[in-house]
Structure formats: structure tokens, C-alpha cells
Automatic annotation (TrEMBL):
Belongs to the class-I pyridoxal-phosphate-dependent aminotransferase family. Residues 26-394 form the Aminotransferase class I/classII large domain. GO terms for biological process: kynurenine metabolic process. Transmembrane segments: none annotated. One of its GO terms (cellular component) is mitochondrion. Signal peptide: none annotated. It comes from the Eukaryota. This is Kynurenine--oxoglutarate transaminase 3. The lineage of its organism: Eukaryota, Metazoa, Spiralia, Lophotrochozoa, Mollusca. Homodimer. Pathway: Amino-acid degradation; L-kynurenine degradation; kynurenate from L-kynurenine: step 1/2. Its cofactor is pyridoxal 5'-phosphate. The keyword ATP-binding does not apply.
Length: 401
């Protein structure tokens, strides 16, 4: 193994999925839907595959199929409050993973510091270290006790956050709605982060793959790129997999100023060069229809969250009934729950407690969930040890619990 990869060998999705299969467990760990995409999206991929125009089956333009980048520009222009140039301000990648990889690799120099808010989507850390960067962690901390709490109760400490920024800070990786907590950051919280980015000349990578999934009238997804002075220093990342409930399609995008997008493009052109053309074509067709449905009851971009809301509430109810303390998320499709009231005799090993509990659950209850210490630095793992993460987009779940 190449030296720069040492320390990144373990992967929580590979490990838990393997264990779930080995024990024939219901997998409420890894996040993906167990139902079909909306009909028009299924039709889009059928149409793309059946298209007799040969160009739909050949390499696309490296930074994105023209039809797709134009559609993304049209979709996001109102949300970003500015005209997005489809040819220079959009990059299409293989999944949001591909987008994150190209952005981080394209921007981070060895020795640069990168601020990561905990709990974080696990790949941020290895992507930063492989680029030679130094991750600097700052945790969200629960501010309330109770049988049922909210993801909004988890907050950054302002002084602690500010103390992480210095002249070596290159990037902050920001994720709202957050995975695994489901926290949707407020305007006030984002303003604090944006002010620090501007003060210390830091770029913000904003991972917004769950942008369409927020719950309730009072919760609004805000794009940090729309805050004053932030467009020029932000790359916003999205995912077709999350938007259309097709995680296997692996299509993601980055939007931002041409100067930053170009850094990611330089990585992309020598990595996968382009994303699969029929998938780009299908996503373009799907999004075109969605644009025409904005504001109507047919809009999948709003109806998915409406469908998820009762599933979220049902899971919180079921978990509370089992003696756990759910942290009800404002967004995304995951829920953390404190299981420490459940009395189980766990083996005494060096592994974090949540890992031991998850192993026990998989083997004895045939239920796979994710141990959240995978989303923390060594220093802050204790903050996640009493929790497990459930995915509530899966329909089968209701029957299993
Ligand atoms: N960011 C977050 C926060 C995620 O949860 C995921 C995975 N679901 C990704 C990025 C990667 O998305 P994709 O499947 O499009 O690569
Ligand atoms: N993002 C998904 C999750 O958090 C899964 C990612 C993966 O399987 N690699 O569950």
C-alpha cells in the first residue's frame, strides 16, 4: 500500500455491510432507499439508454454533459441568487464522493489545515490526509438532556470554533443537513462560520447532498454560498443519488466560482475524466422535468421530504419505546439515538463501545446500524460512543423493529 494511504485502510460501509450480509441482518446502517425512484426518473434512464443518438453513449465533455450542466445552472440559479455559468461554474463528477475528492485534492497543499465539524461524513478525513492536509476537528456538542431531543440542540461552541482558524487554514468542510446527525444549520450559525472564512481567507466546501430533505415549516435549508461575500470562496456539492433516491447512479456535482471549480476540474480530468454519459443524460432529463414541476404537488424535490417526515417520527417513537433516546433530525435521512439505557453485557475489548454494541445488535438481533464513532476523530470519539445511527428512508425498517 502506498505510504500516503496508510491509516485509511478501514471503511465503515465496507465493514458493516459485510457483517450485515454475513449475519443476514436487516441493514438500517448504510443510507440508501429500498424503493424505486419516481416513475419519470426511471423513464429517463430507460430513454437515455434507448437513445439512438450515438453521442449519448460516448465520452461526454470532461466537466459535464452540456445538457446536464445547463439544467443544473437553471435549477440552482434561483437558489443561489445569481446566474450560474454552466460552462465554467459547474463540474459533474462520479457521485458527491467524486466531487469531494476532486475539490479536496485540487485545493489542499501538504501542511494545509482543514477544519472538519464533528460528527462528519467519514470520507472527509482520509480525503484530507491523502492530499497531505491536516484535519482540525471541532465538535458539535449536545446542549440538552432528555428522552427525546433535537438535532438543533447540538451546537458548536463559538470560541472553540474561532480558535481552530489560523493562517494555515485552507478549507472548512461544511455539511448541512448533516450526516449523521441531521442537523440543519441556522442562518446565525452559518454567519459565524462565513465571517471566520472571510476573516482568515478560507475556502468552504459545502456538502449539501441532503439539501431537499428538511422537515417542518420552520426548518429551511440555507446555502452558505448565498451569504454575503461567500460565493467567491464556496464550492457547493450535490448528488443525484440523494436527490432522486438512486444512490447507485453515482452522479454528483460541484458549483462555485470558475477559479475554484477549475482546481477540481484539473483533478477530475486525470482521474475519471468524465462521468458516465447515459447517467448524465438521464439526470438532465429528470431534473428538467423537476424544474417544470417546482411549486406543484408533483415535485419530487419537495414530496420526498413529506414522505420521510412520518417515517422519521415513527422511528423516533419506536426507539423511545425500546428505551433509547432519539435525537430527532431536522434534515437528511438518518437518526442518532442514545442506547446507553439498554442493558447489554458487551465484551471488554479495545474497540469503541458503539462498535461493540453494533456487533452485538447484528449478531443477536439481526439488525445492522452504524456506530457513530466512525464519524469522530480519536480525540472526540467519546462524544459518539453512546449513540447508534439509523437510516429511516428504508420502508422495510418499520416491519423489522
Ligand atoms: N456526502 C454525504 C454527507 C453523504 O452522506 C454521502 C453519501 N450518501 C455523500 C456525500 C456521497 O454521495 P454520492 O453517493 O453521490 O457519492
Ligand atoms: N452516505 C451513505 C451513508 O451515510 C453511505 C455511504 C457509503 O455507503 N459509502 O449511509
Amino acid at each position: 500500500l502506498a505510504k500516503r494511504l496508510v491509516g485509511t485502510e478501514k471503511n465503515i460501509w465496507v465493514d458493516i455491510s459485510k457483517m450485515a450480509v454475513a449475519h443476514n441482518a436487516t441493514n438500517l446502517g448504510q443510507g440508501f432507499p429500498d424503493f424505486m425512484a419516481p416513475d419519470h426518473v426511471v423513464q429517463s434512464i430507460k430513454d437515455a439508454v434507448a437513445d439512438t443518438n450515438p453521442s449519448v453513449h460516448q465520452y461526454a465533455r470532461s466537466s459535464g454533459l452540456p445538457r446536464l450542466v445547463q439544467t443544473l445552472s437553471k435549477l440552482y440559479t434561483p437558489h443561489l441568487g445569481r446566474a450560474v455559468d454552466p460552462m465554467t461554474e459547474v463540474l459533474v463528477s462520479v457521485g458527491a464522493y467524486g466531487a469531494l475528492y476532486c475539490c479536496i485534492q485540487g485545493l489542499v497543499n501538504p501542511g494545509d489545515e482543514v477544519i472538519i465539524i464533528e460528527p462528519f461524513f467519514d470520507c472527509y478525513q482520509p480525503m484530507v490526509t491523502v492530499a497531505g492536509g491536516i484535519p482540525v476537528f471541532v465538535p458539535l456538542r449536545p446542549t440538552k438532556e432528555g428522552e427525546v431531543t433535537s438535532s438543533a440542540d447540538w451546537k458548536l461552541d463559538s470560541a472553540e470554533l474561532a480558535s481552530k482558524f489560523n493562517s494555515k487554514t485552507k478549507l472548512i468542510i461544511f455539511n448541512t443537513p448533516n450526516n449523521p446527525l441531521g442537523k440543519v444549520f441556522s442562518l446565525e450559525e452559518m454567519t459565524e462560520i462565513a465571517d471566520l472564512c472571510k476573516k482568515h481567507d478560507v475556502v468552504c466546501i459545502s456538502d449539501e447532498v441532503y439539501e431537499w430533505m428538511t422537515y417542518g415549516e420552520n426548518v429551511k435549508h440555507i446555502k452558505i454560498a448565498t451569504l454575503p461575500g461567500m460565493w467567491d470562496r464556496t464550492i457547493t456539492i450535490g448528488s443525484a443519488g440523494k436527490t432522486f433516491s438512486v444512490t447507485g447512479w453515482k452522479l454528483g456535482w460541484s458549483l462555485g466560482p470558475a477559479s475554484l471549480i477549475n482546481c477540481a476540474q484539473v483533478v477530475h480530468q486525470n482521474c475519471t475524466y468524465t462521468a458516465p454519459t447515459p447517467i448524465q443524460e438521464a439526470v438532465a432529463r429528470g431534473l428538467e422535468l423537476e424544474i417544470s414541476r417546482v411549486g406543484t404537488p408533483e415535485s419530487y424535490l419537495t414530496s420526498l421530504a413529506q414522505e420521510l417526515l412520518p417515517k422519521r417520527d415513527n422511528l423516533a417513537h419506536v426507539l423511545a419505546g425500546l428505551g433509547m433516546k432519539p435525537v430527532v433530525p431536522d434534515g437528511g435521512y438518518f437518526m442518532m439515538a442514545d442506547y446507553s439505557n439498554i442493558d447489554v453485557d458487551l465484551p471488554d475489548t479495545d474497540e469503541a463501545k458503539d462498535f461493540r454494541f453494533v456487533e452485538w445488535l447484528i449478531k443477536n438481533k439481526k439488525l445492522a446500524v452504524i456506530p457513530p464513532t466512525a464519524f469522530y476523530s480519536a480525540e472526540h470519539k467519546h462524544l459518539g460512543e453512546n449513540y447508534i445511527r439509523f437510516c429511516f428512508i428504508k420502508v422495510r425498517m418499520v416491519n423489522h423493529l
